[in-house]
Design goal:
The structure holds two protein chains of two kinds.
Chain A (H helix, E strand, L loop, with lengths): L1 H40 L9 H13 L2 H19 L1 H19 L6 H12 L5 H9 L4 H20 L1 H6 L5 H13 L2 H21 L6 H24 L5 H22 L8 E6 L4 E8 L23 H28 L20 H14 L13 E3 L3 E8 L9
Antiparallel strand pairs in A: 1-2, 2-4, 3-4
Chain B lengths: L3 H25 L3 H30 L1 H7 L5 H55 L1
Helix pairs in contact in B: 1-4, 2-4
Classes of the chains: A alpha+beta, B mainly alpha.
């Protein structure tokens, strides 16, 4: 476990230092994957299935906001639909517009969930999103997952009925529209999946917010069971012909992914839970503080003290070592300087040699590259530590219960 | 000379400003009523457009039947039904918008209060130093 925690800390440090590069690369890969999946599954317009074009659009997606990735994917899918039939493209456009007008206005940041849901559905892993979203977001995100599922089932059924649509005459506009709308509106598996996802997200969210030990694990397990039960009821009632074995395997996979998410997002040590109670003029506070599991990432410092003279062939290696030793000495001096400052002794630039000013000692660099960024990121103005029911600081996950009914008087 | 406490405070504030702070400062520029009214108006426009799109699809879905019956049907009753459905959609969506944006406004205000108290603290730190 400690090696895993160390790995996590290392990954956090790497991400903190290189997020400027990591985020665009991830967005590029996501766009590339989404467009390739659309081209692979639909591929009616051969001009879009062109690697340079996909690469250029992916490059655009790497630095534009997340909503643009969704827009690119929507445009690609609509162009493919248009190549198949204008009427189908029209229905697709209407579906996207309704989603855009009614939901994305409230939660434009959920665009990534709308994009990821159809992608995971087409990879045969539709149950990952409900459980993961339940852990990371709010029940409102159930709507974005539902929208993503509606898009997936619409496109999937269009692809399945592509031959029938293609065989229709150009004049049969209304018949094409009816076929596509029937596919969209009377799709029982889609309805069952959307309801199951919504219920799962809500259950997972409600349980993981509870002030009980192992709330996240209980939420994951309960959520997956609820998901399976709703799917089973839907299958029995509406005869959706779902494969329950694949649903079971998919749910197990979702549980694994959720555990990984839990490890990175909510890794706490319940054995060291502290329950404290205190009061101020207005409230009684019942505080449960659960310490986060963490280990300090190992930092390797190679210190070599060698006064032996080396042959000229080793001069290059020697000079590097000398530089290391020099840097170590510099670091030690800087540490001494800070301790002096903390102890309230003289704190003046003149007190230290010139080489120890912050700029040439690397203090500025370390500061900008993530030391503080990591420590204070998400510290939570918006979380509103006091007024919120749950907040976290660097070392603890804390849950507050407030009791204001006593008007500030103690029983004593 | 670097004041560590001040630098930490400034870093926290800058992080906040670059993330949710930008949105909250924008919200904080409005009075509560103005902000919610503007958002509800935007929602009404969105709901109207979405209703129009769905209505057009509905018409096209049964276009032939609709065209056959257009001279026989009671157009006033049909228009009344459509307007009722439109009104219900807009009212429901407007109500949801009211709830969501009221909550967001109060959340942003609380968040800004903490931000401004930190700003005050930062100012005090500068004054202490001088």
């Amino acid at each position: 476990m400690s090696s895993l925690l160390e790995l996590r800390e290392r990954l956090k440090v790497i991400y903190g230092r290189n997020d400027v590069y990591i985020i665009p690369v991830v967005k590029f890969l996501l766009t590339f994957l989404a467009l390739n999946m659309i081209n692979g599954h639909m591929g009616y317009m051969s001009r879009l299935d062109d690697l340079p074009l996909v690469l250029i659009v992916s490059l655009l997606g790497s630095f534009l906001p997340n909503g643009c990735i969704l827009l690119f994917a929507a445009v690609f899918s609509l162009l493919h639909l248009y190549e198949l039939s204008m009427e189908v493209a029209l229905v697709g456009l209407c579906l996207y517009l309704v989603i855009c007008f009614l939901y994305l206005r409230f939660a434009p940041k959920d665009a990534i969930a709308v994009l990821l849901t159809p992608m995971l559905c087409s990879l045969g892993m539709p149950y990952i999103m409900p459980i993961t979203i339940g852990l990371l977001a709010t029940p409102a995100s159930a709507i974005s997952v539902g929208c993503g599922m509606a898009i997936y089932y619409f496109l999937h059924n269009v692809v399945e009925n592509a031959q029938a649509i293609g065989a229709m005459e150009a004049e049969e506009t209304v018949a094409k529209l009816q076929l596509v709308l029937d596919v969209l509106l009377h799709n029982r598996p889609m309805m069952v999946m959307i309801v199951a996802a919504a219920v799962t997200i809500t259950v997972v969210y409600l349980i993981r917010r509870l002030s009980v030990d192992y709330a996240w694990t209980i939420a994951i397990v309960t959520g997956s069971i609820v998901n399976l039960v709703v799917l089973l009821i839907g299958d029995l009632k509406y005869d959706t012909n779902m494969s329950m074995s694949s649903a079971l395997l998919g749910t197990l996979l979702a549980v694994l992914v959720a555990k990984v998410v839990e490890f990175f997002r909510f890794c706490v040590d319940y054995n060291r839970t502290e329950n404290v109670q205190f009061e101020d003029d207005e409230y009684y506070y019942y505080v449960k503080a659960v310490p986060k599991m963490s280990v300090a990432a190992q930092s390797r410092t190679v210190k070599k003290i060698n006064s032996q003279k080396r042959s000229s062939g080793n001069r290059q290696g020697r000079s590097r070592r000398e530089r290391n030793v020099q840097e170590n000495r510099l670091g030690e001096k800087l540490a001494r300087r800070r301790s002096v400052t903390i102890n309230g002794m003289e704190d003046s630039e003149d007190f230290f040699p010139e080489e120890l000013t912050d700029e040439n000692a690397g203090y500025e660099d370390g500061f900008e590259q993530g030391g503080y960024e990591e420590e204070y990121a998400g510290d939570g103005y918006a979380e509103g530590g006091y007024e919120g029911e749950e907040y976290e600081d660097e070392g603890y996950e804390e849950e507050f219960g407030k009791d204001s009914s006593s008007d500030g008087y103690d029983a004593q | 000379m670097l004041n560590e406490e001040r630098v930490i405070l400034m870093t926290k504030m800058q992080t906040y400003e670059e993330r949710e702070g930008k949105k909250n400062v924008y919200i904080g520029n409005y009075f509560r009523g103005d902000y919610i009214t503007i958002q509800i108006l935007k929602s009404v426009v969105s709901a109207s457009l979405a209703f129009f799109v769905v209505f057009m699809l509905y018409i096209f879905y049964d276009f032939e039947v609709f065209m056959q019956n257009i001279y026989e049907m009671d157009l006033f009753a049909f228009a009344k039904d459509v307007l009722m459905a439109y009104g219900a959609t807009v009212i429901a969506y407007g109500f949801i918008s009211y709830m969501v944006y009221s909550y967001r406004y109060s959340k942003a205000k609380k968040s800004l209060k903490a931000y401004y108290s930190n700003l005050k603290k930062l100012n005090e730190l500068y004054e202490e130093e001088q």
